[in-house]
Amino acid sequence: MSKVVEIRWHGRGGQGAKTASLLLADAAFNTGKYIQGFPEYGPERMGAPITAYNRISDERITVHSNIYEPDYVVVVDETLIGSVDVTAGLKETGAIIINTSKSPEEIRPKLKGYKGKVCTIDARAISVDCLGKYFPNTPMLAAVVKVSGVMDEDAFVKDMEESFAHKFASKPQVIEGNMKALKRALTEVKGL
What we know:
Order of helices and strands: EHEEEEHEHHHH
Strand order of the largest sheet: 2-3-1-4-5-6
Number of helices: 6
Shape: globular
Distance between the termini: 28 Å
Oligomer: single chain
Radius of gyration: 15 Å
Structural class: alpha/beta
Number of strands: 6
């Protein structure tokens, strides 16, 4: 089997981590990849920690379990670093992508000795600037595509534009803001 890229998302209920993982799965599928995208819930309430997963491959995926040794970890809420072992099982050949205004060098000491690549992006600043509200999932989605290289960036942007146009047909300002946030996030990931 060809290399399967495995991604684990950590967020809090209401931040869009599950939605972002499903959007990534849809975008990868639309470029001809085989995909899996699924959440894992603890207490289902706003603000509670949640985990979501992606598997993306050029060939059929035959594994149907949680992801225990991800290639990439996406942390949508920096405060989870103190309460969740976000680097558990994370391959040192992969990377962790964290939503923070801090640099990779500033955040590394908090990651329990993780030796792999640490990438950061200020998804809060991007989403507030582009969308007028704090919706970190759109910038984080773009960041994981940038860091993982799991799909062509131009194909990703095109697919997301079509997806947003369908979902927000009656709200063109939402489409424009999300596209601006996606494109900006692709250029603002630190630690590459």
